[in-house]
Amino acid sequence: MASGDNYNNLNCKSTLNLFDLNSPVYCSNHKLPEALQKIADIVGIENVTNSENEIQSHRDSLGNSFKPLKNEYSNLIVYPTSTEQISKVVRVCNEYRLPIVPYAGGTSLEGQYVPTRNGICLDTSKMAKIIRLNQDDLDIVVQPGVTWQDLNAFLQPYNLFFGPDPGPGAQIGGMVATSCSGTNAFRYGTMKDNVLSMKIVLPDGTLIKTKNRPRKSSAGYNLTNLFIGSEGTLGICTEVTLKLNIIPKHEIIALSYFDSIKDASKTVSDLFKNGIQLNAIELMDSRQMKVINQFSYTDRKWSENNLLICKIGGPTKNILNDTIDIFEKISSQNNGFNFEIATNEREKTELWSARKTNLWSSIDWAKSMDPDMKYWTTDVAVPVSKLPNVIEETAIDIENSGLNTTIVGHVGDGNYHALIIFPPEKEQIAKQVLNRMIKRAIDNEGTVSGEHGIGLSKRDFLIDELGQDTINTMRKIKLALDPLRIMNPDKIFKIDPNDVKTSH
């Protein structure tokens, strides 16, 4: 066993086994008031709070299966307003061994900001400045508290937009932390494809820049991608340089309905085989469409069948029309019907709004059954060729288990989501269904998460996907940068041999 936090005897190894560590030692109750006062002095008393409401609102997220114990809540919520303040706050936390849970828009779904060790919750929402637009280079420098919607509203007059579009309210800092994506990822990529460089405060307070602005660089390690998807376990991003895109000159929304979710999924594979380039392609199952109608989340009524909806773009209307014809033909070959297109902005917004309201309409559905009804939402991804069978098997499994669900997917990249609804007495059944959904993805050469991340909810499953040696390599990197284990402890993988929390 390692002695305390000194694991120098293990430095000859490239990996780090969990059971070669002792439990981390954190700030004592005796020293805690002193540490918190120093932090308040740095950011100003107006930028800290220990109010019960604020601590409650920063403790977990909708649809997350992990709920923190009251004795694990953060001691203080901190709202820094600059990179300098974050660096100073982190230095204090390092000095006092005070855990830090970074917090952005609060939209993550796998327990990324659930506190497990008290300490502080560092909320970057007040750092919401757009620092510089480099219009000729198609990039922009922003602070982590900017939401992707506000960013795109700023960019629209310049005929530009930022590609990733996750759930409403998501902020750039959290999007970086989870390596999220959204409906546009099929064409424009995930966060890993859209971040050029970052400024990062490391766990000892050191500020680093991961890269300069050029699109192309072979200058050393790719530190930018190391921090993207690290869920705040390696450092805190305080400034991000993002790639931008030109708004397509011509773009329409097209849709087709299917009786079978398998037929809808197979249509996607067939489109790819025909070389069709789409800007986005999304699937919503028949239950989801019924729920959207039931709660009037859009201005129109929808056919309550499985829906495949896509964005088709191109430089000319002729190319657009050719693609539309092929999409309609392939949909029909897979038993699609009620083909529809939208060309003006009002119609396009109306059609696409169904996809963007799916989560909230499903939650309303759950609560309408019973105010005590519980729900979990999670995602997996598989190779596109395997998606038709996998998504159908999942839908049948949930239905046969006596639970309710809605299924949606970014099917262009094999990523789908299930919101599982269950009464409290069926929680164990829901866990088993979720476990089978994740195992099904792994068995089909897929991943336990296409875009939500790992957090607390999927730590054990990550081992099943990647193997213990890979997790031990990640742990080695974590301990190299954060030997005191203060940065968002317990997320992605275990850092304490006495940690008994289990996935779902």
TrEMBL record:
Its cofactor is FAD. One of its GO terms (biological process) is lactate catabolic process. It comes from the Eukaryota. Keywords: FAD, Flavoprotein, Mitochondrion, Oxidoreductase, Transit peptide. Residues 66-247 form the FAD-binding PCMH-type domain. The keyword Flavoprotein applies. GO terms for molecular function: D-lactate dehydrogenase (cytochrome) activity; D-lactate dehydrogenase (NAD+) activity; FAD binding. Its main location: mitochondrion. GO terms for cellular component: mitochondrion. It catalyses: (R)-lactate + 2 Fe(III)-[cytochrome c] = 2 Fe(II)-[cytochrome c] + pyruvate + 2 H(+). Pfam families: FAD-oxidase_C, FAD_binding_4. InterPro entries: FAD-bd_oxidored_4_C (IPR004113), FAD-bd_PCMH (IPR016166), FAD-bd_PCMH-like_sf (IPR036318), FAD-bd_PCMH_sub2 (IPR016169), FAD-linked_Oxase-like_C (IPR016164), Oxid_FAD_bind_N (IPR006094), Vanillyl_alc_oxidase_C-sub2 (IPR016171). Its EC number is 1.1.2.4. It is found in: Mitochondrion. The keyword Flavoprotein applies. Belongs to the FAD-binding oxidoreductase/transferase type 4 family. This is D-lactate dehydrogenase (cytochrome). The lineage of its organism: Eukaryota, Fungi, Dikarya, Ascomycota, Saccharomycotina.
